[in-house]
Design a protein that fits this description.
- This protein is an alpha/beta fold and 345 residues long.
- The protein has one domain: TIM Barrel (Alpha-Beta Barrel).
- The protein contains 11 helices and 13 strands.
- The strands form 3 sheets. The protein has an 8-stranded parallel beta sheet with strand order 2-3-4-5-6-7-8-11.
- Helix 3 packs parallel to helix 4.
- The two termini are 17 Å apart.
């Protein structure tokens, strides 16, 4: 049997939700040594008290779990909020523009981001990474909605402006999904990096999710939406390149089946149970499985300045069928056969 041993991976972008959904999905992230937990909940994490309460909620369910906490950038965020969140253990300042995705109603619009540069500069002083969802939802002048496939590209000028005006700020472009954004990250200074998900590596593409502006496969609907085949090829090249600017962040984002099948469907793909098997298969197919450990266990930890994990996992070539659901939540690649299984040492 073919098998490989690697350092235990980390996940630098995950949605664990809260309440009942947290209880249902948290065990499937236990494969990771460290998990950067996003705070766009039903009641977003916007203060140090919110952060501490959420940390305790997670640890009460899984005492050995290691959540890295984030605080949301909102219209009410102040320098004092940033300082208090940093002292409470925040690893990142999370940006999700208003109306972009789940729990983002309090978020700052990209067109208003310049008004918050003093907050970003305070985050840099407090050693918080600025982890951002870079999509422009609507035309700033007219308010006309921008087609989903174009939103990441249209956000690029706003990112470049932040890079220029906040040179000491560590910036992560979350779930990079286009060749154009990958080029921006590659050309940027070393303080700019990006996370890559499993689902943006394929096998599905834009035309299988959205046609003529309508979502045709709600279970594959996420933000940013899956892109063209050429974009997916660019994402795969970046992930497997060995470039430390690109590291793993699952963006695992569970919703109930009822919400996924609603009109409009909730955006998010629950990938935690399958993503490491899937990502390794991509590296194996590309003939660079030796780079898998850097992508999943080293580059992100180094960028965030955390110690690397010491324990390890084994990935074995042992086919299995992904269940249709996990406790009522449909996973990425449900019903599909995967070639690789993960075991802890």
């Amino acid at each position: 049997m073919e098998k490989f041993t690697f350092l235990r991976p980390d996940d630098f972008h995950a949605h664990l939700r809260d309440g009942d959904m947290l209880k249902r999905v948290l065990p499937y992230s236990n494969i990771f040594g460290k998990v950067l937990v996003m705070g766009n909940l039903s009641q977003p994490i916007v203060t140090d008290r919110d952060l501490v309460d959420y940390w305790h909620q997670i640890r009460a369910l899984e005492p050995a779990f290691n959540p890295l906490m984030t605080v949301m950038l909102t219209k009410k965020t102040s320098n004092q909020v940033i300082q208090a969140a940093s002292q409470a253990g925040a690893a990142a300042l999370k940006m999700i523009p208003g109306g972009t995705s789940t729990g983002s109603s309090q978020g700052v619009a990209l067109s208003d981001l310049r008004d918050y540069y003093h907050i970003l500069q305070e985050a840099a002083r407090c050693k918080l990474v600025f982890s951002g969802h870079w999509e422009l939802m609507a035309e700033p002048d007219t308010g006309d909605e921008i087609p989903e496939a174009q939103r990441e590209i249209r956000a690029i000028p706003y990112l470049i402006d932040v890079i220029r005006n906040c040179p000491k700020l560590k910036i992560v472009v979350e779930h990079v999904s286009t060749a154009a954004m990958i080029k921006v990250v590659e050309d940027a200074p070393d303080n700019v990096a990006a996370t890559i998900t499993g689902h943006h590596l394929g096998p599905y593409h834009l035309g299988e999710v959205i046609k003529d502006g309508t979502v045709v496969n709600p279970l594959l609907y996420c933000k940013p939406v899956l892109k063209t085949i050429n974009d997916i090829k660019a994402v795969r090249r970046a992930a497997t390149s060995g470039n430390p600017k690109f590291f793993f962040g699952s963006d695992s984002a569970p919703h109930s089946l009822e919400k996924k099948m609603a009109l409009p469907p909730a955006a998010g793909i629950f990938s935690a149970p399958t993503v490491i098997s899937h990502v390794f298969s991509v590296f194996y197919e590309e003939g660079c499985e030796q780079r898998f450990e850097n992508f999943t266990a080293k580059f992100g930890t180094e960028f965030y300045n955390f110690p690397a994990n010491r324990d390890k996992i084994v990935i074995e070539k042992r086919p299995w069928i992904v269940p249709k659901d996990y406790d009522g939540v449909v996973p990425f690649l449900a019903g599909q056969e995967l070639s690789w299984q993960v075991a802890r040492l």
